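Hey L., structure's done. Input below.
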Amino acid sequence: MMPLTMAKPGETVTICKITGKDEVRQHLAELGFVVECDVTIVSEIGGNLIVQVKDSRIALDRGMANRIMI
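Output:
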C-alpha cells in the first residue's frame, strides 16, 4: 500500500484504505473516494493532484491525497 501522491499522471489506481479522522473520511466519501473505487490521476502540480473519480474531476492538496491509500 502507498499514498495516492505516489501515483503518476495518467495512471488508474484502486483505493485500498482511507486514513484520518472520521470527519475527513466522511468528507472524502461524500466526494466519491470510497474503498475499492477506481481513481485516475489527471495531473499533478507541486504535489497537488487533479483526479477523476466516477464522473467528476476533483482537486486534492498533498495532505488530503496522502490520506488515500492505494
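The domain at 4-69 is CATH 2.30.30.90 (SH3 type barrels.). Strands lie at 12-14, 17-18, 38-45, 48-53, 56-60, 68-69.

-- N.
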